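User: I'm putting together a teaching handout on how sequence relates to shape, and I'd like one worked example. Could you take Alpha/beta hydrolase from Cellulosimicrobium funkei, show the sequence you're using, and then write out its predicted structure as tokens right after it?

Assistant: Happy to. First the sequence, then the structure tokens directly below it.
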Amino acid sequence: MTAPTTAPDDVTAATHTYATLDVPVAGGRLRVGVWDPVGPHAPEPGARPDGGVRPAPDAVPTALAVHGITASHRAWPAVVAALPGVRVVAPDLRGRGRSNGLPGPYGMGAHADDLATVLDALGIDRVVALGHSMGAFVSVVLAHRHPRRVSRLVLVDGGIPLPPPTGLAPDATHDEVLRALLGPAVERLERTFADHEEYRGFWRAHPAFASAWDEPWADVVAGYVDYDLVGEAPALRPASSGAAVSADSLELYEGGPLADALAGDHPLDVPLVLLRAPRGLLDEPEALYSPEHLAAWRARLPGLRTRDVAGINHYTIIMSPPGVEAVAGETLRALAAVTSDGPGPASDEEVTA
């Protein structure tokens, strides 16, 4: 594991220190952002002799934050700032961010195994897993494949199998389904940009972010957008691998590791809450999940609790104040419940596909 690299993060400077490190995983190294709390519960400063960051003491609660299908760990600063006293570990998933050079295979199981490797490298035993969009699916599979690592799940507009996109022919191709699901996100991955300002212009025109640039939290969006570009001008490109996005999107519906985790012979046995954004990926009134869809899943999963977060869309649920308040609040409740419940099961049994 490479030694941590510190960098300023103005959004979280009052509550956390921020560093990145690269963790060896299958095929290369995974970039990981780590926010350590400042104040009385801060870990000891410094690095371990092996070049890794010093693990947080047991007294410091830890959340593992897992981003969405075309995002990066830089989606999380607003939520981190609302979690004082909490250590937040957030990777760039395989094929995204500064982990975009990692090869396949992709898929929820591969991502989950990468996350377990990250926890091992940091000396972290158990976490509350906090996943947004596809990151929620990864978190569910992590809790199933590596049950001793996850005490509770906070799912943010994801993690439950998606209904098929509407308006498509029964014989629609995978590419057609992907474009119906992600919209401009697919177009973005196919483009190059002359500079960061042109890329910001793309996001200013995105319906989900159209008003965000005039809000007090615009710096959160700007940091997320600027981090996403890689390469050299005038041919900068979004970091996410199209191959990774395409492969991973196949597992967002019923089937594969998610089906095993939720409805297999040994289904998930961990408390979970899902926060639903009432508006979709384009800020449209049709949400990713309908109330009826989630009601059907609550009947199948007695441990599932769902909650709507008013006034936000699929993206702004982790960046705007109403969304951040809800996400951070549920994360703090989950961490408090873990403390009152005790350390959880001691079994090292893992579930493999």
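A couple of points you could highlight for students: Residues 6 and 287 are 38 Å apart (CA to CA). The longest strand covers residues 16-25.
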